[in-house]
Amino acid sequence: MTEIAPGVHRLEFIIGAKPMAMHLLNGDRVTLIDTGLPDTPEHVHLPALRELGRAPEDVSLALITHADADHIGGNAALRRLFPNALLACHARDARWCSDPEAITAERYDAYFADHGIRYEPAVFDMLASWMGPATPMDLLLTGGEQVRLRDDDWLTVVNLPGHTLGHIGLYNPRHRYAIVADAVFGRTQIDVAGAPTAPPPYIDIAAYRATIETLRALDIELLLTCHYPVMRGDEIAVFLDASEAFVNDAEAVTLRILREAGGPLTLAAAIDRAAPLLGPFGFAEDLKFAMLPHLELAEARGLAARSACDGKVAWAWTGGSVDR
Ligand SMILES: [Zn+2]
């Protein structure tokens, strides 16, 4: 455990080969940022509280940054271990944050009916093991709320959508840091050795671009994510530039593969063609998250027409000008 900023403790651990960091705010009350996996409250948060001389009853708030298995999995355990803690998330992510069945069907398995893309059972098993029982939220946020740490030290809830529609982070203007969880991904997700794993999984291009701009506009010298090393100073701008460059490249690659396909492309075929151009990735299948909105954007711009191919949605280049 490291006190990375005044009252902010970074709790790092590893899930398989995936680096993970939870954040704990030790103030007049204790606030947890995300609940992690089902065993995280007991195995990560509880020992940290003990080390800080705080009681489980001191935890008054758990802010869920966004709906993903590795950020909501400890919700039920949190209720049990920290009975005074309110569970909070953005209103737009509340359904998925509360209900493992809903997030599995509507986020992780949302690409089968139209696109024939579905994780192997082992991946679903892994995701299921990362989540506990359904647990309702107590408090829904919309961004702009302020949370007092101690004295006159406040953090502001910042909307950082793109990865999910209700992704939030926390900004501390006084100590110039932001806790942004999985709001931005550079050019790739990484394992503990820094090797590329899955591609940036944004689901809304315009929102993700706006989030990069939001983060650029914050006056920070410390950027805290959940799956990347701590970033300071110039490293922050480099990472945000890389995040934007990936989106620009994905947009250009989408148009190129549509143009070169000579016929309709399904989402799966688009991923096969785009992955080597945008990667390398250890788990290219997760390009489904970003490639679908990129194909839909090409369609919205009139550069691709939607059709069907073997019962799956497909897009074909319309020969339009890419300058449009
Ligand atoms: Zn995550």
What can you see in these coordinates?
About 35% of the residues lie in helices and about 25% in strands. It is an alpha+beta fold and about 325 residues long. The chain has a seven-stranded mixed beta sheet with strand order 1-2-3-4-5-6-7, covered by helices on one side. A six-stranded mixed beta sheet has the order 8-9-10-11-12-13, covered by helices on one side. Strands 14-16-15 form a three-stranded antiparallel beta sheet. A hairpin with a 2-residue loop joins strand 2 and strand 3. It is globular, with a radius of gyration of 20 Å. The N and C termini lie far apart (about 50 Å). It binds zinc ion.
Descriptive key words:
2 domains; binds zinc ion; 7-stranded mixed sheet; 324 residues; single chain; Metallo-beta-lactamase, Chain A; 6-stranded mixed sheet; 25% strand; 10 helices; 16 strands; alpha+beta
Number of domains: 2
* Largest pleated sheet: 7 strands, mixed
CATH fold description of the largest domain: Metallo-beta-lactamase, Chain A
Counting DSSP H or I runs of 4 or more residues, the number of helices is 10
